[in-house]
Amino acid sequence: MNTRRFDPPADPARRRLLKTAGGATLLALPGAAALAQQREGVPVGPRSTFESLVPAAEIEAEAARGYHEMLAQARAQHRLAQPENVQLRRLVMISQRLRPFAAMWNERAIGWQWEVNLINSPQINAFCMPGGKIAFYWGILAKLQLSDDEVAMVMGHEMTHALREHGRAQIGKQVATQGTIALLAGLFGWSNASRQVAGVGGRLLSLKYSRDDETEADLIGLELAARAGYMPQAAISLWRKMEAASRGAPPAFLSDHPSNPDRLRTIAANIPRVQGLYARAPKPDVRFGPPLAG
Length: 294
Ligand SMILES: [Zn+2]
Fold this sequence. Notes:
Layout: E1 17-19, E2 25-27, H1 32-38, H2 56-76, H3 86-98, E3 115-119, E4 126-129, E5 133-137, H4 138-143, H5 148-163, H6 166-178, H7 181-187, H8 194-205, H9 211-227, H10 234-245, H11 252-256, H12 263-280
The structure holds zinc ion.
Residues 157, 161, 209, 214, 217, 257 line the site of zinc ion (ZN).
């Protein structure tokens, strides 16, 4: 019998986005005007109150389990890129340039065991699970012909979902919605539910993010990439490519990361906020470029 008590979030309906007078969507922010003036970069709102309902360490452990199961499956199907693969080396290098700025957004990231893998699959997809477990699918690199700057934007976006613990908040929200800790007990095997435990890792692989989470990932991702020396305007060209690819069947990426009509406008409005960071950032001395199309 587990007697742990969970306080409900104070204001679960609180929205994290504001419309400014000019109509641009900004992340918002109690006391945010002050904060925005103190720091250079995109404006950022408070974290979701839901994430406090589940322990970060448990979520990260389950994510690692789900990630390694996924890798084992890919390896068995001969779909896991080997360390010498040039596109994998490219992903690793870009992630290494972004990672030093991760702790600005989440102190836990200092202790994360970051991993980067490339899955040989035609899907247009990429993700970063809680705890820094990153995967890119070949399809997103090849079909969208992503430049290094555009890869950095995808990477920054995905890292932000992990750093701002959007997955943890989502699981927390499910717990709150169900109004019971029985679910939580099941999720983390506090009862003997090993089958359910395995399911959580899998669920963290296929989260569908909210539009607020998406906006936050776009903006913080933009800043992470700019600080790492990647051109902010690439965020615009990336999403244009994604939109073009979504004519016909929407890519897997967009079904997990829903776009909205304001996406490009919001990103464009925030580019000036990171332009100085980009201008001063050391630039990568190695450039890779996309794989040959086809
Ligand atoms: Zn996203």
